[in-house]
Amino acid sequence: MTNNVYEIDLSKITPREANESIRENASKYDKIILKNPHSMHYLIAGLVDEVDIEVDGSAGYFVGTMNDKANIKVNGNVGWFGGDNMTGGKLLIEGSAGDGVGQGIYGGEILVRKDAGARTGEIMKNGNIIIGGNSGFMTGIFMMGGCIVVLGNLGKDVGESIIRGVIYVLGEVESLGKNANLIDIDDEDKKKLKGLLSKYDFNLSSSDYDNFRKIIPKSKRPFYGK
Amino acid sequence: MPYNVKKDSFLCNREFSRPGCCWYKCDIKDESICPECYSCYNNCPHNVYEIINNEPYPTHQKNCIGCRICEEMCPNNAINVYAVSDDRRNVSSYDDMFEIKRKSIEGSYQVKSMGAIRRIPTFDDLVIIPAQVSRPPLDKYREPCFTNVTLGDRYAEHPLKLDTPIMIGAMSFGALSKEAKLALALGSTYAGTASNTGEGGMLKDERKLAKKLIAQYASGRFGVSADYLNNADAIEIKIGQGAKSGMGGHLLGEKVNAEVSKIRMIPEGSDALSPARHMDIVGPEDLSMKISQLREITDWQVPIMVKFASGRVKDDVKIAAKGGADIIVVDGMQGGTGAGPEIVTEHSGIPTIASIVEADNALKELNLRNKVSLIAAGGIRNGADLVKSIALGADAVYIGTAALIALGCRVCQMCYKGNCRKGIATQDKQLRHRLDYHKSGEDLGRYIKTMTEEGCMLVQQAGNTHISKIEKEDLRSLTLEASKLTGVEMAGF
Lengths: 226, 493
Ligand SMILES: Cc1cc2nc3c(=O)[nH]c(=O)nc-3n(C[C@H](O)[C@H](O)[C@H](O)COP(=O)(O)O)c2cc1C
Ligand code: SF4
Ligand code: SF4
Fold this sequence. Notes:
The structure holds two protein chains of two kinds. By secondary structure, chain A is an alpha/beta fold.
């Protein structure tokens, strides 16, 4: 069973039926293509199998929530909370994402080719989120670990109450949230950024890499202890 | 309430040659240190004792909160703790003055564990009326009483089927020791009921020992993954808990050791601070979407529950029920906690008895009373509280503090310090060693079974054969306050 592909037409089925079919076929096929998604919510929810999935269009809220090993590619845009609570795997979004993309992820990687809404990566604990365009207000709010990279600009109150993790930004930062500190990057950071970004052909020159800055917590324990 | 701690010096010094004589059998069994047992001094969680001339004395009596841990642990029975009657100086009582002065010196609010302790209307204000000839009573010794309940069969393929309507409430690993979590799991299995992970992830052994285990999904999402949810028999979305309504759970870095960090999936030593609200649930529509999301992740197999602190109960319950919840939990203001600000615990929320009635009415108004199950929590201790909860409208109850007491807890209100003398609310290896989870699990199972039997007795003498059959009409109120809060008729009217 190599390189066999299974197609599911979502136009006439419910999210429950869609997810049941995805779950049932994930272990049997190498790749699943979801046709006519019409921005369906909760697509590919709680999948723990390793499989390639292509969403041929746009997805609604919570696409790929709690994904653990699957490689998901969405050809269009996604609604709020894309890749919510992922523990592994990948979510590649060719278009834009709504608010809260990568909320609470523990692992895995999320790429948003264009812009993301507000509160990207809120309460994330680990993993990587890469935004090709801008990311809205409160990006990285309550962040507890992991890494966000934004190639465009960041909105207001970036890194609000961040206690661990890092947010890299190439563009402008409108304002910083409580406990957030904006500093220059060093060679280690550049190496890390190159490793993360080179696989996604963003056409960044080496001087672009010099222009990144990073947002980190001022204190690891801003509320309690030292 | 103030306490008077009396220590008899003669008894204290009578014998010190029995290593392992105190109930927890000494942490370090060394005969040479026996004369310095200082059990009261070492174990009082509130620093009441001081060592003077090599002997402990209860010099700081104002600190005493009456847990009687010193009394229980003294190997020589040298200590007696007495409650003394309330200070009647009303608003300028000694307690008030003490607290004002403390704040003026320390500049900090008080943190405390467990539930509200001030006087509020409770289950004790209600009685169950016996059946006579208008309705005949049933014979406890010769006739059966059924106690099984099915919860959450609205949409879930596999609802919770329990032998008793008494369940163990959410108490997290992290706030509690592994041994305590395993004892709760074991106890729930012995009694044929369900236990709950709390908001700190699921221990492998806890899953093994609990026949039915509810996975909590709280705002910090600690330890949450697809496997975590799919390993559970129900999912509980925690919106709030009665003891600290409107506040998220906080586990300080000091308690996040290697094992807690592994289960919560966060770095060792980092504070696990749950936001006050779920970042993605800020309105009615969001809750409905959250329920659907969790249903999709768990393939509609298990019930989705929503737990609320009791505030605007009617509105909240209606939102959850309309949003598709299978089970709703209301936790009254007496409900316990691992840690919370005293001012919030004592002054926020409404009593459990009022909350149950409001929730039941809300479901009836939506015509969903038979579809959505209702669980009551907060201050439930015995078969009478259980039966009164059911009569007021609940289908089942959660016990938190009472379950811990069955394991040995003395409600010293200091769980948040992480050095629980009973090995329950601690991660300290030596203290954890004091809790034998096999034995305490059995104790808990026995307690729940006995409480269920008490409930049966009350239900049978009221003329019913099933514990779920008791109704509000079978209750009378002894106080105007409780009657007004619950709509239960005053006795004698
Ligand atoms: C030590 C302790 C830890 C608790 N942890 C949680 C928790 O993680 N999540 C939660 O929803 N409630 C938590 N609670 C509240 C209980 O689930 C339950 O609602 C409450 O204890 C019921 O009231 P009772 O203690 O009077 O029985 C905790 C309570 C205690 C005593
Ligand atoms: S152990 Fe408890 S009862 Fe004894 S003195 Fe301390 S607070 Fe009071
Ligand atoms: S669990 Fe331990 S620390 Fe908490 S109240 Fe009970 S005895 Fe005290």
